[in-house]
Amino acid sequence: MAHLSYVNVFAKDVVALSGFYQRVFGFEEIEAIRSPIFRGLDTGKSSLGFNALDAYELLHLSEFSDTRGVKFLLNIDVDSQADVDRMVPVALEAGATLVKPPYVTYYNWYQSVLLDPEGNVFRINFMM
């Protein structure tokens, strides 16, 4: 059976961006895989990686390196509606931009939509 092991984000500054997710969500760094162009965080069920832009060339993806616009959506689940409400101000203080304040979706999740400091969209979710 397949499972998702990592989601990797290309980042202008892997140290700063991984630090943002550490501060907001408390994810621990996986120090054993640290490199000058990579940081990995343990999210509990999978991992979140941050690749420097140099990785485009290493992965033979240089022709696909246009990073403008929304290319993906990170969803980070929390344990309660109160956790969503508590974590949004923490994210904003750490440098996030609020796109949509906490609300109940049509599929009955409580969530907020934000941009991280490099403009990547993420949601803080509680599945009610």
UniProtKB/TrEMBL annotation:
Domain Glyoxalase/fosfomycin resistance/dioxygenase: 4-123
Entries under Pfam families matching the protein: Glyoxalase
Gene3D superfamilies (UniProt xref): 2,3-Dihydroxybiphenyl 1,2-Dioxygenase, domain 1
InterPro entries found in the cross-reference section: Glyas_Bleomycin-R_OHBP_Dase, Glyas_Fos-R_dOase_dom
Name the UniProt record assigns to this protein: Glyoxalase
Organism name: Variovorax gossypii
